[in-house]
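Inverse folding, one chain.
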């Protein structure tokens, strides 16, 4: 047994410290086994709060799932977990384990598995007061103890900034790649620059930058008006020599849909925001392609009870034979 990592017990016997080390080693093995079955890990991050990270993460996961990929969505914003609410998922994880001792994630549909601390909490309105090591441990458990199975993409929604959560992801998931979200204003861009430098510092590859809230889509005529500036995200991408993945305009329907738990950007349709998001999705796919042989189906997915895209109006996609 090696020396106690805390450096305080001074014991080399199989004491409490030794068993803690053994447990950590066992957890490392479980983490490695889980990650081995996940082809692409995408950390959605930004130096700035409220720029649309969770909105992008949720719609990216749904969009990729809708294309037939096997997707996982992991909410590591432990202080402000929003993913479950945005997806309208009401189920709670009760801690029940499968035979192999793993926790089944929430299942949004056949293609999309979700995990968030919020779905494990008794009272969703209670604030969570956690410090670094506990956050680190929660994220490690999200990977080690959850039955993710084989995934094409794992999307990870991070809180703003470059604190404990993105740092834990960088240390635990060595091949995670960052997708950086910004808005066009200089103040956001300055903060986002810090995220880019964080990625350099921890040697995390950057898939690219997406500029959200880029122009405003009038809900009456669907025309786009540049109420904020646009183009800052693209400039930042050039500055750091990373791909620019697109601009998504402000559309009031994104807010309403997010609040109602029915994500809008990935819902299919012809509005400028939905189209911009579809182009962004294609660019992400191009940056992180998955073997074509691994794609099982192309039928658009929808939740039971909503339209499956057959054109016959609301129908249940699990029973509709369209
Ligand atoms: N393109 C958009 N058009 C209109 N509203 C948007 C758009 N993108 C995000 N929003 C809205 O902006 C608000 C903040 O978005 P979101 O929660 O995704 O940001 P965030 O970066 O995850 O925030 P936090 O830093 O608190 O985690 C939400 O109300 C969301 O609906
Ligand atoms: Mg968020
Ligand atoms: Zn108009």
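Residues assigned per position:
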């Amino acid at each position: 047994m090696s020396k106690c990592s805390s450096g305080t017990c001074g014991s080399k016997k199989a004491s409490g410290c030794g068993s803690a080390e053994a447990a950590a080693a066992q957890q490392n093995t479980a983490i490695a086994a889980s990650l081995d079955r996940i082809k692409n890990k995408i950390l959605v991050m930004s130096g700035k709060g409220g720029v649309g990270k969770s909105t992008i993460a949720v719609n990216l996961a749904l969009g990729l799932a809708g294309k037939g990929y096997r997707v996982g969505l992991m909410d590591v914003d432990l202080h402000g977990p929003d993913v479950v609410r945005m997806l309208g998922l009401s189920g709670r994880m009760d801690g029940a384990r499968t035979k192999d001792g793993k926790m089944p994630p929430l299942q949004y549909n056949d293609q999309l598995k979700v995990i968030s601390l919020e779905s494990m909490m008794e009272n969703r309105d209670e604030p969570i007061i956690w410090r670094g090591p506990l956050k680190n441990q929660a994220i490690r458990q999200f990977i080690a103890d959850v039955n993710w199975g084989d995934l094409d993409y794992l999307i990870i929604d991070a809180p703003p900034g470059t604190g404990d959560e993105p740092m834990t992801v960088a240390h635990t998931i060595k091949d995670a790649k960052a997708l950086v979200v910004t808005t066009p204003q200089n103040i956001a861009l300055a903060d986002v620059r810090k995220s880019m430098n964080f990625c350099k510092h921890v040697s995390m590859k950057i898939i690219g930058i997406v500029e959200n809230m880029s122009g405003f889509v009038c809900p009456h005529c669907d025309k786009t008006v540049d109420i904020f500036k646009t183009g800052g995200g693209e400039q930042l991408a050039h500055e750091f020599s990373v791909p620019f993945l697109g601009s998504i305009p402000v559309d009031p329907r994104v807010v309403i849909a997010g609040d109602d738990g029915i994500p809008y950007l990935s819902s299919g349709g012809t509005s400028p925001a939905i189209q911009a998001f579809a182009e962004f999705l294609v660019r992400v796919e191009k940056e992180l392609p998955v073997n074509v042989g691994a794609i099982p189906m192309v039928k658009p997915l929808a939740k039971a009870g909503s339209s499956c895209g057959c054109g016959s109006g609301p129908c249940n996609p699990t029973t509709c034979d369209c």
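The chain has nine helices and nine strands. The mean pLDDT is 83.
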